[in-house]
Amino acid sequence: QVQLVQSGGGLVQAGGSLLLSCAASGRTMYGINWHRQAPGREREFVASISKTGENTRYADSILDRFTISRNNAKNTVYLQMNGLKPDDTAIYYCKVDDKDVWGQGSQVTVSS
Fold first, then answer.
1. b/e per residue, 29-68, with b = 16+ CB within 10 A?
2. CA 45 vs CA 11, 18, 37, 72: distances in Å
3. Is the Cα dihedral 88, 94, 95, 100 positive or negative?
4. 3-state DSSP call for residue 99?
5. What is the pLDDT of residues 70-87, one digit of tens each?
6. Alpha-carbon distance 3 to 95, whole Å?
7. Which of 80, 74, 104, 77 minimizes the C-alpha distance to 92?
8. CA 1 to CA 14: how far, in whole Å?
């Protein structure tokens, strides 16, 4: 069973940047999604990337600010977050696209 281990996140001022990483165990490549859940809100989709990296998709709320990418040699997917806003404050989770396998979550807090 594949496992996802996240790193990154933290506290940043509005307008700042953070990088999240999601490392998958083993050698099999998977499509990976990022989701986030803010306090008192439902978990929402943020971005996705195919196993080859050729196809990406983004939520409208983060378009042109966040970039999803991957390094298949490291079996790791990244979420580069620029121009962060207080509304981006949430716990961010990576997930295998077609499996109920989730990372442990990373807290992102953006101060105004």
1. ebbbbbbbeeeeeeeeebbbbeeebeeeebeeebeeebbb
2. 21, 18, 9, 22
3. negative
4. coil
5. 999 999 999 999 999 999
6. 10
7. 104
8. 38
How high does pLDDT run on average in the chain?
97
Q: Is 65 left (phi over 0), alpha (psi -120 to 50) or beta?
A: alpha
Evaluate whether 69 touches 77 at the Cβ level (below 8 Å): yes
CA distances in angstroms from 106 to 28, 52, 53, listed in the order given:
23, 24, 22
As to burial, measured by CB atoms within 10 angstroms (0-12 exposed, 13-18 middle, 19+ buried), residue 77 is: buried
For 44-68, write each residue's pLDDT tens digit: 999 999 999 999 999 999 999 999 9
